[in-house]
Design a protein that fits this description.
The complex is a heterodimer of chains A (166) and B (498). With 166 residues, chain A is mainly α. Chain A contains six helices and two strands. Chain A is flat. Chain B is an all-alpha fold. Chain B has a two-stranded antiparallel ribbon with strand order 1-2. In chain B, a hairpin with a 6-residue loop joins β1 and β2. The longest helix of chain B is centred in the N-terminal third of the chain and has 34 residues. The termini of chain B are far apart. The chains are: A mainly alpha (166), B mainly alpha (498). The interface between A and B is large, with 69 and 60 residues.
Chain lengths: 166, 498
């Protein structure tokens, strides 16, 4: 996903401006003129400077070579439904995990996202489901069993005690 | 010497040895899979080490990094796809040797020279770091401020692509580091009323996002497709290797030296060390015209250089807390997590612990020979794991890893956001290393700046009040200004000529 340098520069300028705007209100440290707002403001100012140079370099290039800014170009992969699907599915898998894990629990959420992703990329449903289940159990055993990370139980909460001993 | 003995005892624990062996195998596997970088391997290992004692955790990480850098040579030589960016400089050279039926020699020289480079870097680290720490004890906040500025400046100066992109990447890292409680006055910044942001965006979720999620997304859009594994004839890997190493000993030693020095420069990592070393070897070689046709003369010093650079990078990382590259930036993060705050005092307060880490790195490079030998034998098996299964599994590991250290689903959100940011940055030529250096060094720069100003009653000139600080400031400013002066001079000369 190629973003034209003129747009990247503009994004840096806007981000810098946001940092400066938001940092104005911070109180300074007693007796000196600097405080917690100084550093973010400096970062913002440098971002605006670097963004301006980046964007103007691109615009000067346009003026010299006649090559107009292209906005956002997606590249070859945007023609392949499978690649678009993979890209969207990877992102959607993380979002689904964030939204569902507290309710469904780790043991139900993880196999779903793994099975869907592996099936999409590998096209073998049997292998996808088997790998997803085995990998989830391995992750659960390692992180919850060995490293004592409290992974969410969700719907399986009533059986948490039994499942821990399995 | 007592300290070294104590450090060795800490390592001779079966648990530590087990962790080192396991991380060695992990490093070899990840390093040899094209598309998975050494930084990504460390990023995924950090959540696991979070639950270990400092010595096994850090010994595991340094062992893994030594192995991953070597393992990158394997697909480079056999498939012409460097496993990690550090092997890119000579992948073509090594592959041409494979095509000429000399795969065993290419891999054997790669293995032995990687081990030599790694041991060289480790010895420099063991002897130079404590000596440098004595000097660093004289440093006050102003010197640290300038040193951190120098580190950040160098990170941008050596990054690939146009410098503005390096600067923007650095500023993104610094901006992320300002989220949460301000280190000096304790005010909340950019938390937008969310309690989850009070402690800032967690280091590990950000790391996993930038290095692992971005890599997965790049795989998804198909810009990284592995070639099918071929099985070139590999005979005795060590046949004729030592004769070649003996012939090229001076060149290899030069590669080790270049690698260690470049590794110690903030921002310049193993990849740059290998490129520079390859170029220097070509410059001084009597077989100069044969470079690029598949000879060991360029391969040997370059592969020694990328391994020695890690030892070099650990010097400023442990003595000053200034990372040499993204990999050492991650190691610094782990040092902080383990209460081994990098800086000269760690050599006074916990000398046995820090020396145990150094010794572990030395031992890891010695382990490289047998482990690497087995990895060469099993390489085609490693490649047989289909990436269509591997990448979703890595995603699962990323999610649990990010969650594990913070015990909050918010960490997964942070990982996702930084993953998309990292993906967009890499796709558009914004280097990631300055961002991660900014993230690690941001709080230090700010804290040292404000503490120095409080000491100096708000007078900015206090920052130049000590001779060493003024010297460091001069070097930092020179890196900013000299390129501009050179550019202007070139323009003027260009316009003066008819």
């Amino acid at each position: 996903m190629k973003i034209d340098d003129s747009l990247s520069g503009l994004a840096a300028i806007l981000f810098g401006a946001f940092l400066i705007y938001w940092s104005r209100g911070f109180e300074t440290v007693a007796h000196i003129a600097y405080g917690p707002g100084f550093f973010p403001m400096l970062i913002g100012a440098i971002l605006i400077g670097a963004g301006t140079i980046l964007a103007s370099r691109r615009l000067v290039g346009w003026w010299r070579t006649g090559e107009a800014p292209r906005g956002v170009t997606l590249g070859e992969w945007a023609r392949s439904p499978r690649a678009i699907g993979a890209f969207v599915l990877f992102l959607a898998a993380i979002v689904f995990y964030i939204l569902a894990v507290e309710w469904l629990g780790f043991l139900l959420t993880m196999p779903i996202i793994l099975a869907v992703l592996i099936w999409w990329l590998d096209r073998r449903p049997g292998r996808a489901i088997a790998t997803a289940v085995v990998a989830t159990l391995a992750l659960q055993t390692f992180f919850q069993g060995v490293m004592t990370v409290p992974l969410p139980w969700g719907l399986l909460e009533p059986w948490a005690g039994t499942l821990t001993w399995m | 010497m007592d300290v070294i003995g104590e450090a060795l005892l800490l390592l001779l624990d079966p648990y530590v040895i087990g962790v080192m062996a396991a991380t060695a195998i992990y490093g070899l596997v990840v390093g040899s899979i094209p598309g998975l970088t050494a930084s990504m391997a460390v990023a995924l290992l950090v959540p696991v080490t979070f639950f270990m004692d400092p010595v096994p955790a850090l010994a595991g990480i340094v062992t893994m990094s030594a192995m991953a850098i070597f393992a990158g040579d394997l697909p480079g030589a056999l498939l012409r796809i460097p496993g990690t960016p550090a092997s890119a400089a000579y992948a073509d050279e090594a592959h041409k040797m494979t095509l000429a039926g000399k795969a065993d020699l290419a891999l054997g020289v790669g293995l032995i020279c990687s081990a030599i480079g790694g041991v060289f870097g480790a010895l420099v680290l063991i002897f130079a770091a404590p000596a440098l720490a004595e000097v660093a004890l004289q440093f006050s906040t102003v010197e640290y401020f300038w040193l951190a500025c120098l580190g950040l400046t160098a990170a941008v100066a050596v990054s690939h692509g146009h410098w503005t992109k390096g600067v923007i990447s650095l500023m993104i890292g610094l901006a992320v580091s300002t989220i949460g409680l301000d280190p000096v006055s304790g005010q909340m910044r950019f938390t937008f009323g969310s309690t989850a942001l009070t402690g800032g965006l967690g280091f590990i979720p950000v790391l996993i996002g930038l290095f692992a999620i971005s890599e997965i997304l790049r795989y998804a859009i198909g810009s990284k497709r592995p070639a099918s594994a071929t099985r070139p004839p590999i005979g005795n890997v060590f046949a004729g290797v030592f004769r070649e190493v003996g012939r090229l000993k001076l060149s290899i030693l030069r590669g080790c030296g270049i690698g260690t020095v470049i590794g110690a420069v903030p921002g310049a990592g193993a990849d740059i060390a290998a490129y520079v070393s390859y170029a220097v070897a070509r410059r001084f070689s009597p077989n100069r015209e044969k470079f690029g046709t598949g000879i060991v003369d360029g391969l040997a010093p370059a592969t020694a250089a990328n391994n020695s650079s890690i030892g070099g990078a650990f010097v400023p990382a442990t003595v000053f807390g200034i990372p040499g590259d993204s990999l050492t930036a991650i190691v610094i993060g782990v040092l902080y997590m383990k209460g081994l705050n990098p800086g000269p005092t760690v050599f006074l307060m916990k000398p046995e612990l820090i020396n145990a880490v150094f010794l572990a790195y030395l031992i890891a490079n010695l382990m490289l020979v047998p482990f690497g030998f087995v990895a060469i034998r099993l390489f085609t098996q490693i490649l047989r794991v289909p990436q269509s299964v591997l990448m979703p599994l890595i995603l699962g590991f990323c999610i649990v890893g990010a969650f594990a250290v913070e015990n909050a689903t918010f960490a997964v959100t942070a990982m996702l956001i930084m993953g998309v940011v990292g993906f967009l940055m890499e796709e558009n030529g914004f280097p990631l290393a300055p961002a991660i250096l900014g993230l690690v060094l941001g709080p230090m720069v700010e804290e040292m700046f404000l503490t120095s100003l409080i000491k100096g009653d708000g007078n900015l000139l206090f920052l130049l009040s000590r001779p060493l600080a003024a010297g460091l400031a001069a070097v930092t400013l020179a890196i900013w200004i000299l390129p501009l002066v050179f550019m202007l001079a070139r323009r003027l000369r260009g316009s003066a000529q008819p």
